[in-house]
Amino acid sequence: MQVEEIKKICVLGCGNMGSQIALNAAIHGFEVVNMDVKEEMVAKAAAFAEQYLPGRVKKGRLTEDQARAAASRISHTTDLEKAARGADFVIEAVLERLELKRQVFRELDRICPPHSVLATNSSFIVSSKIAGVTKRPEKVCNMHFFNPALVMELVEVVQGPHTSDETVTLTMELARKMGKTPVLLQKEVYGFLVNRILAALMDEAVWLADMKVATPEDIDTAVTKALGHPMGPFRLMDLTGIDLHYDIAMEQYRETGDPKHKPSPLIVEKVVKGEHGRKTGKGWYEYKE
Ligand code: 3HC
């Protein structure tokens, strides 16, 4: 399949990542169905699209026609059959639970046409752990976006041992058509490129806070003012989710058995208290909305 033949994209998961990936695809000319099992997530994603597009017009980033066309190309549903039927390309962005992803891919394999590529946006689960439940492992890969997905340019495309070169080329082309810059990982590695680098930074930042060397605020100031990062590691954790940071660390700990990968007590405390970052109104910082 050529990238020009991709007309319909199905994005599974109406969370922060799924809803922004879907909207980004609609803005770039694709017909998109964004699906979630939870009604309230579907409603939230639809409401986000409804307020985001006029906001882009007001800011002069889109014309009224472009915003109207994007709005007409995106729909939201709780019906997986409807979302996946006839989809040329699927981007799965459901919760980071391996069994859930395997179940979703089994269903996708049954519903989607034989030519469809099934990609996962997982932050750390490699597609070789999922591809085996489908009859098309050569069409399964990782396509990893970054938060906020409407803004961040990078997409990591990861080729598993089962992924064909054709699937990789198509996924890279699709990322470009979605206005992104793809990089290719020629083999699977835990955490891919960015999350490996980011984890090293965040672990160090949490260790410094844990040792009471400096407050999270001052560590963030140090990183933004000295290293030129757009936001410090604590504010970034609030954006991506402290619960996700915990999941990634736990998964890495399970893989390596190395105690240095175990999430710090500070992180565990935040997760237990339900202070997961922006999405819960509180993480390292407080958020009014
Ligand atoms: N959703 C959508 N768009 C957003 C946004 C959001 N949550 N936050 C900001 N934006 C947009 C704004 O609308 C604005 O767009 P415009 O310039 O076209 O009008 C642009 O981003 C800049 O926004 P602001 O001026 O309000 O704020 P900043 O200049 O501080 O930028 C930021 C905000 C883009 C989030 C910037 O701070 C940043 O780049 N932070 C680092 C983000 C990062 O590192 N992401 C990677 C995380 S790791 C990850 O995702 C991996 C995963 O596996 C966990």
Stretches where pLDDT falls below 50 for ≥5 residues?
Answer: none
- The CATH top-level class label of the largest domain: Alpha Beta
N-to-C order of helices and strands? EHEHHEHEHEEEHEHHHHH
Reported for the largest beta sheet, the result is: 8 strands, mixed
CATH third-level topology of the largest domain: Rossmann fold
Describe this structure in words.
With about 290 residues, this protein is an alpha/beta fold. The protein has two domains: about 5-185, NAD(P)-binding Rossmann-like Domain (Rossmann fold), CATH 3.40.50.720; about 195-280, N-(1-d-carboxylethyl)-l-norvaline Dehydrogenase, domain 2, CATH 1.10.1040. It is built from eleven helices and eight strands. The protein has helices at about 15-25, 40-60, 65-75, 80-85, 100-110, 165-175, 195-210, 215-225, 235-240, 240-255, 265-275, and strands at about 10, 30-35, 75, 90, 115-120, 140-145, 155-160, 180-185. The protein has an eight-stranded mixed sheet with strand order 3-2-1-4-5-6-7-8, with helices on both faces. Strand 7, helix 6 (about 165-175) and strand 8 (about 180-185) form a beta-alpha-beta unit. Helix 2 packs antiparallel against helix 3 and helix 10 (about 240-255) crosses helix 11. It is globular. The model has no long low-confidence stretch (mean pLDDT about 95). The structure holds 3-hydroxybutanoyl-coenzyme A (3HC).
